[in-house]
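quick one
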Amino acid sequence: MNRTTRRTFIAGGAAMAVAAAVPSARAEDVGLGALATRSGRFFGSALTSEAIRRGGDYLRLLGEECSVWVPEWELKWGALVKERTEAPNFRPVDSILSAAREGGKRVRGHTLVWHEHLPDWVAKLGTAGDWDRFVVPHIRQVAERYRDEIFQWDVVNEAIEPFDDSPDLMRQTPFYRMLGPDYVAEAFRLAHEAAPTARLYLNDYGLCYADGAQERRRKGVLRLLERLLSQGVPVHGFGSQGHLDIRSTFNDRVFRDFVETLAGMGLELAITELDVREADDAAGLPRVERQERAAAEVEKVLAVALDNPALTGVVTWGLADSESWLRKTRPIPDNQGLPYDDQLRPTPMRRTLARLFAGAAKRHE
Ligand code: G3I
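structure w/ G3I:
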């Protein structure tokens, strides 16, 4: 079977077993999801319901490379509901779940409680009564609806914000206003009641680098997780988003200590939104050099994370640069930060991911 046939054949979920059963296949010929599966982990990508509608080569690539899909925005409260009186619109999410079932993909849920992408009227809430009247039904309804389809949830996203000057380093959000810091514990308890078999994660960003602000973020995350675990809250894992930045300073020991501390708490770990923001002067460099730099940045972080059996998987935030949020909201219009470029050609990062997964110590459930 030549490379193209194998890559095409891998597109379907069933082929995942074939790829995994072909140990002699060269790493570059086996999908990243299949390589991750061999190490007892998953590899996936965020995708949108628009990508499902569009179909074509990008969807085929998502099928070939991923064992897990994550709805990029469709599960967020503000995408499900606009007006207070309306019922949630689950159709965009359901289109992703239906395609995932057909392709043999597992779906990771993102996210039940987040201070962004909220319906306007939710952002204005602030009492314990609001929590009972609106947040409880929201968490219950969404988690229950997908209880048998979403295997891992970002229950609460971005709960830490040192610059909010809160003594507990927690972000001052409408949810914090409603219940204080205990909103996190309540959200996890509700999610566990509604989806008892799902693995429940706290998710946050700005945790991989050695600077002072990220050190405070790591401190805030660990303090929150310690409190949740001491209260017997059903938190199973932590998602480090992994929005990497070439301009930041990475220190292997610092990040390794953080990963080992999380694992030492008995938590699973996932890298949940991996991509690379280039340096501001990148535009003037040769494209291949830019892509090599991005691949090297990913290797720094994943070499540490994949060393730890607590790591359950890696999700990139999009699979191709043309789909990246970084193109919409960052000053580099042609940012090179994902495993595939604008023409859906593999970048050095794809080769790096394949090599790292192929060489990773096997994780036992
Ligand atoms: O909500 C509308 C929907 O009603 C409409 O049908 C659809 C049509 O395309 O657009 C939707 O709007 C935008 C959506 O992306 C789809 O493009 C939202 O206005 C826009 O805010 C949303 O942006 C997403 C953002 O989260 C907010 O949800 C980005 O794509 C997504 O990459 C970004 O992802 C976040 C993670 O959730 C958390 N970590 C940071 C990461 C990057 O900001």
